[in-house]
Amino acid sequence: MRAGAGASRRVRTGLVGVLVLTAALAGCGLKSGSPLVDEVVPGSVGQGRPLAGASLTVTSKNFSENIILGQMIGLVFKAAGAEVLDRTNLPGSISAREAIINGDADAMYEYTGTAWITYLGHAKPITDPLKQWAAVRDEDRKNGVTWLPQSTLNNTYALAISRKNNAKYHLRTLSDVAALAKRNPSAVTLCVENEFASRDDGLPGMEKAYGMSIPPGNIKKMDAGIIYTQVSKSNSCLLGEVFTTDGRIKAMDLVVLADDKHFFPNYNAAPVIHTATFDKYPEIAGLLDPVSRRLTTEVAQELNSKVDVEGQDPHDVAKEWLIQEGFIKNG
What we know:
alpha/beta, disordered N terminus, elongated
């Protein structure tokens, strides 16, 4: 059930890809999935079992963090009295998105930046995270999607450096990197994915925003998973492209550099609900809002590490955290 990290987590798919995936969804009818059989009862959420009699389907994309978040929704719904069908781990962003729009699934966690840029087609992100969430919420209503309040969990791009290497350079921000590249160009070596190396919201845009110029020979392209290891354990790249909630950041003792000019889009996680479902069960907001308020980037790093570093099952990780936080209890 483990899923890979990398560019797949926020697919910017062209129209052809959207149509193909939509057709595939229509053909399979999203019949796969299995009931959640956990014996869980309300903790601080779900008192009175407001979803008793409801039959709800949860979904997610196919990478660890989003699967964990999807499992959280399912477990909360189950504790609140619903019968829950688990259809998490769908391939790619568009599959899960279409499931919510079409009503083949009722709820998932989505990312504001993905919706604003990929689904709604805007070229420029909104710098203020709450304003971006509000804009997504308002515009997505026409698609039959209801956005609940976002978490501070922000799964965006960043550059990271190993703590041991940073003992020499003392980098804290991307502006510090720009200054180092100007002062000592040979010092700044960078490992990135192919996609990040060419996209406007990746390396080229970052260099432009920060007045940064990294010699082409200092840029190495590789798979996302290898980047973390290279930055941590070798001297082939001083800096690497990472995702801010990745569990390997903490596990490999990496330091994430602050995006002090707020160049990278915000990818805050928020529950999205099929609007007809929310109209029928508005109690869902009261169930999920407290969970979202506790989800931070640091929490996500810890939970993702349990799956991607320790090899635990996303369902077990989600359940353990919800019980630990007091949201639900074992039945």
